[in-house]
Amino acid sequence: MKFTAGQIAGILEGEVHGNPDIAVHKLAKIEEGEEGSLTFLANPKYTSFIYKTKASITIVNKSFIPEHKLNTTLIKVEDAYKSFSKLLEYYNQVKNNKLGIEEPIFKSDTATYGTDVYLGAFAYLGNNVTLGDNVKVYPNVYIGDNVLVGNNVTIFAGAKIYSETIIGDNCVVHSGVVLGADGFGFTPNENGEFIKVPQTGNVILEDNVDVGAGTTIDRATLGSTILRKGVKLDNQIQIAHNVEIGEHTVIAAQTGIAGSTKIGKHCMIGGQVGIVGHIMIGDYVKIQAQSGIGRNVKDREVLQGSPALNYGDYNKSYVHFKNLSKIISRIDTLEKKD
Fold it and tell me: Which residue, 60, 185, 207, 226, could crosslink 168 as a Cys pair with Cβ 3.0–4.6 Å?
């Protein structure tokens, strides 16, 4: 797949400075650019590399003025970083623009799908499944009964979508994801044996939700486990039954959220965070990696540690944590003087 500088400039609404017919077929970091590759310069720290790069085309800000001779064709844009990101998105759309139905698949007679659909080999579509337009279902995906999938959704290979799940428009579900497995609900009987509580709810992903590889989202006991629009999840996250995550919240890898916790909108949660069940986390909250959250959190709090403290208090305390042995030694010395 090749693109010329002129074609790329057209996509990005940029200006070509150099050869508009020069073509590229791969992407590269500026310091590793080779002939036939496309790169970009956004961080001034990397400016020196533009005079050395062998990349055929480099995307730069309009404000960039070369101080030395260049061996690369420039495409000048308003924001090089955003333009390169837009190009990556466009590249992925072209690369993943699969269409048609491979064989073999299993499709229930009651399953339906819209236009421009791709169904990969060994996909399974259960009873009353509904897929919208431009849905991509990669090989070995399981979609259970009564699942509703919106438009422009991509479900990568090996994902498992349990019954009754609802997926909105423009969502991405990566490989190994499990949506709608039973929540972890058990209750002890008089003999101390744990008896399963039926999990009869479902999972709902609203529009523009991304779910990273290996992430698991459990169905609700009653009602729904809900990810509101624009939520972005990293790989290997566990979300338990009846959790609700607010709009445009982002969560990094290996975080675990226990049942019935409600998380607000526009939150940022780092990797390996543990969050107990049945609490409320406000809007615009920031939680640093490896923190443990065991209480309700107000809007705009910034937390770190386990159990988590206010971010500023944690940093002040950590200075003393590092010097704890010295402080104890000084206290011992003072006590001996007394």
Answer: 207
